[in-house]
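Note to self: user wants both folds in one dump. Writing first protein now.
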Amino acid sequence: MIAMLHFATLVVTTLFAAAAAVALDWLLLRAMFVLMRPATAQRVNAPSPLVRGTAQLTRAYATHR
């Protein structure tokens, strides 16, 4: 009877450890995907003053041609 109890304890402990390992692996995998994303994935670049100035010059000179 005690041998069956020990075996059941071993099975339950193994299942718990396997579930914890899968959960930790999934968590680390998701963290790696977040870290591997490019830094500009969520950032929208506003045009710089140089680009705006160049666009204004282009419009100014395009009307005189």
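First done. Writing the second protein, which came from a different request thread.
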Amino acid sequence: MKEKIYVGHTLQEVEELAVKELGVAKEDLYFDVLTPEEVSRDEIQVHVMVDANPIKKAKDYLETFLQNANIMGYVERKMRDNVVEYSVSTDGANNVLIGKGAKTLSAFQFLASMIVNQYFDRDHESGFVVKVDVGDYRKKRDEQLERMATRIARDVAKTKIPVKLHYMNAYERKVVHNKLSDWRDVTTHSEGVEPERYLIIEPRVKK
């Protein structure tokens, strides 16, 4: 979690500076004044720490969105190591939340990740990998991509001919790349410019 020691003339000055620099709301911060009472109060030293549950905040955000959109549904949270997954289920609105080409779903995932990781110092902490799924769409899509990647990788390993895949978003490219990352006979790399960026599966050059 983010934390920093500030020096200022008043606690209010430190609070305003911490909110601005740390990018976190005042109610999510804990202020511990370090200056002893007997020392002159012309300046005070304050230890500022994030005091929040970012995983819950992202879940609250998704639930609040459903409520404001008058969508009946619920959000389930699962955690594994540094990966947090939010599974959204609705009563007839899954397609709306997924969107064409899963663009709406990708936006939800981006926002949830921003909410969670804003509380971590990226220079010193890795934070969390955040995933959002609606109606198991992403789970099924991941399995489909992995099957496709395996099938094509076997052909490339056999024929030694590179294969260019269709355009994919960054998340889908990562699914394919991760699936093939430990293959000895093939490797992957991206080419093109968003939104027309794609992966190439090619024979691995043995050293």
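Dump finished. Worth passing along: The mean pLDDT is 91.
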